[in-house]
């Protein structure tokens, strides 16, 4: 017998004793009820709980695999970003290095010029002493009477002042790193993740527009329109198929003209960081400059024998990059004033960087010091660092246009983005400074872009070869 109240087996004596008034059942009935309960438990565990837990286990296994994969990818991405960030820091210091070298050249040239002037004055004064001593010895009173003193001129002693900025650095441990050299400044900052997961600092808060728009359509008399370079905010110098270089505003009004001494027309034009116009003359193998406020044309650069100048770019540091050709061969030379500073022709393995062919090299320099060149003979845009090493080549593959990529004019903007014209496909490719494709820019009417420049407001001026029109494009917001 089983006592239901006490949930324990009892005997006959217990039934009339301590458990007298308790409910009691036969053991067989109780066992049968327990067996039914066990069967229900088995059924629920087998049919419901185990499958449910198996699902959870499968889910957790999947999450484990997913987390492992994602964190492995995160580790790889972290290493990629480490390389990218290190490259950015290297680029910053490369840019500072360019600024220092430019200042060094400028200061040395100024000091040398002062020194030459002082030496000439010393020679003049030494000669004056000898002449004056002869006056003291002369027996001709008239010679002494006609003597004129130059002492006042020599008393105006030239004051030499050599000024140059110092390298300034500031380190706030764990928070901020900054470096400054003249106008070149860079800042790396760390912020709390609670405020922002990623904090990108840049000098210009501009981003690519989803849809670029043409904000001005400028007619010109230059048909075909060959070259163009912006000057200021709303003007540009342009050339066509004659000797004249014209300065036009955004309304198409001609503000100024310069007549060159080229046999046909200038091969290219650019503007120095002092705002002076320069142009290349392939027949005379020269790059000429027109000084501000003067009509006189001066020869700035004469290229090496048998090398013909074609395209040019004036850098922010004051250098002039000139692409040139000798038959099918191509190279780029960097000049500071008249002095040759760098030849870009072969890579670190002594192999030619540029493909032989009939097309000339278009070029520009990015903010990080990379020289970007359009090698139409190879159908690529190539970037070369300050050491002459190839950083990357871009072949236009991401855009997947009908015709082969035909890179020509190049500009770089305030975000260090590279913008190159695709002549065959009438569009513009926009890349980041590491050669990663960002966007293909297409606007209605961009047919056969043959000239490209950026104004001070960051707007693109695209010159069309056949129509002679200029389209001003807003592509950043």
Which helices and strands occur, and which strands form pairs?
Layout lengths: L1 E2 L4 E2 L2 H4 L8 E2 L1 H111 L3 H5 L5 H5 L12 E5 L3 E6 L2 E6 L18 E11 L8 E5 L3 E5 L4 E6 L4 E6 L8 E4 L5 E5 L4 E5 L6 E6 L5 E7 L5 E7 L2 E8 L2 E6 L16 E5 L5 E5 L4 E5 L5 E5 L12 E6 L5 E5 L4 E5 L5 E5 L7 E6 L5 E5 L5 E7 L1
Antiparallel strand pairs: 1-2, 1-3, 4-5, 5-6, 7-30, 8-9, 9-10, 10-11, 12-13, 13-14, 14-15, 16-17, 17-18, 18-19, 20-21, 21-22, 22-23, 24-25, 25-26, 26-27, 28-29, 29-30
Keywords: Coiled coil
GO molecular function, one term: ubiquitin protein ligase activity
Organism: Magallana gigas
Describe the structure.
With 477 residues, this protein is of the alpha+beta class. The protein folds into four domains: 2-79; 89-166; 167-201, no CATH class; 208-476, Neuraminidase (6 Propeller), CATH 2.120.10. The protein is 26% helix and 34% strand. It contains four helices and 30 strands. The chain has helices spanning 12-15, 27-137, 141-145, 151-155; strands at residues 2-3, 8-9, 24-25, 168-172, 176-181, 184-189, 208-218, 227-231, 235-239, 244-249, 254-259, 268-271, 277-281, 286-290, 297-302, 308-314, 320-326, 329-336, 339-344, 361-365, 371-375, 380-384, 390-394, 407-412, 418-422, 427-431, 437-441, 449-454, 460-464, 470-476. It has a four-stranded antiparallel beta sheet with strand order 7-30-29-28, with no helix packed on it. Strands 8-9-10-11 form a four-stranded antiparallel beta sheet, with no helix packed on it. The longest helix has 111 residues, at 27-137. InterPro entries: 6-blade_b-propeller_TolB-like (IPR011042), TRIM45/56/19-like (IPR047153).
